[in-house]
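Internal tracking record. Fields below are filled automatically when a chain is submitted to the structure queue. Please do not edit lines marked as system-generated. If the sequence contains nonstandard residues, flag them in the REMARKS field before resubmitting.
Queue: standard
Priority: normal
Entity type: single polypeptide chain
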Amino acid sequence: MGILSSFTNLNRYEILARIVIVLLVLPLHEFAHGWVARKCGDDTAEAAGRLTLNPLAHVDPFGAVLLLLTGFGWAKPVPINPARMNHPRKGIIWTSLAGPLSNLLAALVGVILMQIVFPFYHANPNAVLTGIYLLLYWFANINISLAVFNLIPVPPLDGSKVLMMLLPYEKGMWMERHQQQLSLVLWILILVRVLNVPLGYLSYWIMKFFTWATQWIGTLVQMVM
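SYSTEM-GENERATED OUTPUT FOLLOWS
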């Protein structure tokens, strides 16, 4: 009941942003993994028909529903075969980072569009412009949160694969052997909401940085209006 009641308390723009992310950004996240793997020499995702932005090829029903209800979720992971990569260690690092980076890129696009819309909204704050602005805000905000979440260095998240490749071989193998136990620890931390504050803090500062770095766009739009 807690999750459902929280969902019903969301504003309609945040709900719409979550739907857009399920249909567009989760597929982009997995496509990015597969595309970078292909660039590294591994065509496994392409051969499996997963090198596409079609949401039907990527959406995991449970992960999609969870994202709609909580703001965090996932798609079906694209198949990756490090043995087919030209340089497996580097390949795994870049392939793993590709997903979170795609979320940050989507967030940046959302912030840029916010900066373009804001002068028009400020000059004429009607319902349509308000809705567009709030939709873009939540779209950017949720994408940043997903990127930060996926970079946590605990299995099965992308950050764990990066960490395993950066650690000495023995410690990386220890993480791989204990993935199930580490995943259980992650779920416990999520359920007791220990991660909410640090993840929220980091997401806030990334959003603030994106807004600061793109504010010249809004100024430029105001000058030509």
